[in-house]
Amino acid sequence: MNTKVGKSETLYEVRKIKNLKEMIYGSTKLFKNNVAFRYRDGENFIDVTYSQLEHDLTCLGTALFNMGLQNKRIAVIGANSYAWALAYLATVCGTRNCSSDRQSPT
Q: 45: buried, middle or exposed (CB in 10 Å: 19+, 13-18, 0-12)?
């Protein structure tokens, strides 16, 4: 059930989100080709779509799982970056089946 937000009139509907994993995969369904992250690489800016983000975190999460790190404590230490965000999200969101048909920008 969606909740409507606003004082006296409806401004927009807010979808219910139970956890971070549901937020990421739900956002990918809604905003597949929209930019989820934009980061700087030297003089260039790199855009990462929700679809690419889901693919990247699924592959990294699958790799962590295959390394035997399921239900283990993992520290994500590093500078604020797409790679850090990806590592954090893959750690907390777990895995799905990763298809290697797309290349990651990181």
A: exposed
Q: Which two tokens stand for residue 67?
A: 């390394």
Q: Which amino acid is at 85?
A: A
- In this structure, the number of other CB atoms found within 10 A of the CB of residue 59 comes to 20
Q: Where are the alpha helices (DSSP H) in the chain?
A: 20-31, 50-66, 82-93
Q: Is the pTM of this model over 0.70?
A: yes
Residues 6+ apart with CB under 8 A from 50: 27, 28, 31, 32, 33, 34, 36
Q: Where are the domains positioned within the chain?
A: 18-93
Query: Splitting the chain (106 residues) into consecutive groups of 10 residues, what average pLDDT does each group show?
Result: 60 85 92 96 96 93 90 89 94 71 45
Location of structure tokens 């790190």: 69
